[in-house]
Write a structure and sequence with these properties.
Strand content: 15-25%
Radius of gyration: 20 Å
Number of domains: 1
Low-confidence stretches: 1-45
Mean pLDDT: 87
CATH superfamily: Alpha/Beta hydrolase fold, catalytic domain
CATH architecture: 3-Layer(aba) Sandwich
Largest sheet: 11 strands, mixed
Structural class: alpha/beta
Length: 424
């Protein structure tokens, strides 16, 4: 069976991304992907045992959270990852402060068909057997289609992007926190790169198979290709937000937007947040796009021109493990060239996957299942403290640079969070 994307290029592939960032950038498309799809993993959980239930921690902001999924089609370009398809098709999740519950159901972490695919393909790559966890039962704290909270006023926008191969769902704990604190967050899936993307009607589009020969040069070319596709996707989404804010509704792929959402969005105050490759894309988008005010990178080595030319806009970098600004060459060169406000923090005893929802989901499984190398995936940092520190840092950053509510936290995080240290 071909190796899964998550094992090789997914959100946990810090070493792979660092290797690719250090390799020469390749502008040409790599060899065509081999035909077919990876076979489903064999084996599984003992059917006599009940799947382990999993829960996400609630956001801590003053507002309840609402969400809606948008099916977006960009017919101005062929799909960059599947050129035979004459248009680019995307799924996005919008998260926002909402009025108190009025009977709207809570949204799932993954929609049903995507959850089944995750169970069959993604979970086993993490060492979780098929059927061992109730992935379909994981719920968010957001109400589907709930009206926007009128008291929240105009909403600054944050675009979120996961690591290469990762579902947008992997950032839910941070996305919900930002929404509960007054942001409109747009979480975007990269079709044919993300392991599974579910479209209306239950159709799931899986990631294209990886090449058989994953040399560092091939990996670098793949990540460059994926980065370019994501940057184009992000610009398209910014255009959609501009149209929504100006009253245009057509082409959003949903019958009715939640009450007040389009009027509340304020695209003039937009930031970007990403993990791993998503963090690299966030920095590059802020570098290229005048509509973006600030970028936050969660443990992502930098690809593209931003690595050398730096940023003239606010930039937050959060590292894991023993990484520093000197150990990652792309961080060092970007830092030296940047002229905007810069903040670099390291989460002690964290791993690359600590900056995903796996930080809080895997420990729940470890209590019941022998998940191999869980510490290698999410570190040994206390999961609750890790998530709380990340939420505090990310909300402080966007609060300072999108809403004008400065705090001293980013400069002195260790006063309340010994898990965080400032990198200089």
């Amino acid at each position: 069976m071909p190796p899964t994307r998550r094992a090789l290029l997914g959100t946990l592939g810090a070493a792979v991304l660092a290797t690719a960032a250090a390799a020469p950038a390749l502008g040409s498309r790599p060899a065509p992907f081999p035909g077919g799809r990876p076979a489903a993993p064999t084996g599984g959980h003992d059917p006599g045992h009940t799947p382990v239930p999993l829960r996400l921690p609630a956001p801590t902001g003053p507002w309840p959270v609402g969400t809606v999924a948008l099916h977006l089609v960009d017919d101005s370009r062929p799909d960059p990852l599947l050129p035979a398809k004459p248009y680019r098709e995307l799924m996005a999740g919008l998260w926002y402060p909402a009025e108190p519950d009025a009977g709207h159901p809570t949204a799932p972490w993954l929609p049903p068909a995507a959850a089944a695919d995750w169970d069959a393909h993604s979970a086993p790559a993490l060492g979780v057997p098929v059927g061992a966890a109730d992935w379909r039962g994981v719920r968010t704290h957001a109400r589907t289609g709930a009206p926007v909270a009128r008291s929240a006023g105009r909403l600054p926008v944050v675009l979120f992007s996961s690591g290469d191969g990762g579902s947008r769902a992997l950032g839910t704990t941070l996305v919900e926190e930002l929404a509960s604190r007054g942001h409109l967050v747009v979480a975007l899936d990269s079709t044919y790169e993300a392991e599974q993307v579910e479209f209306p009607g239950g159709r799931v589009e899986r990631a294209l198979p990886l090449p058989d020969d994953l040399t560092p040069e091939v990996i670098a070319a793949l990540l460059t290709e994926h980065s370019r596709a994501r940057l184009a996707d992000a610009r398209f989404v910014l255009d959609v937000l501009d149209r929504l804010a100006s009253g245009y509704r057509s082409g959003t792929g949903t019958g009715l937007l939640p009450e007040g959402l389009a009027e509340a969005a304020e695209p003039d105050r937009t930031g970007v947040l990403g993990q791993s490759l998503g963090g690299s894309v966030a920095a590059q988008l802020a570098h290229d796009e005048p509509r973006v005010r600030a970028a936050a990178d969660l443990d992502g080595a930098l690809l593209g021109p931003v690595a050398d030319s730096g940023l003239a806009k606010p930039f937050l970098l959060m590292a894991s493990g023993t990484k520093t600004l000197r150990t990652e060459p792309s961080w060092a060169s970007c830092w030296a060239a940047s002229t905007g406000p810069r903040h670099a923090l390291r989460l002690r005893n964290a791993a690359h996957g600590s900056y995903t929802d796996l930080q809080v989901l895997l420990p729940q499984l470890v209590r019941r299942l022998p998940v191999p190398d869980a510490a290698g995936l999410i570190g040994t940092v206390d999961p609750r403290r890790s998530l709380a520190a990340q939420r505090t840092a990310v909300t402080a950053f966007f609060g300072r640079y999108l809403t004008g509510r400065p705090t001293g936290f980013l400069d002195r995080p260790g006063a309340d969070w010994p898990e965080l240290e400032v990198l200089r």
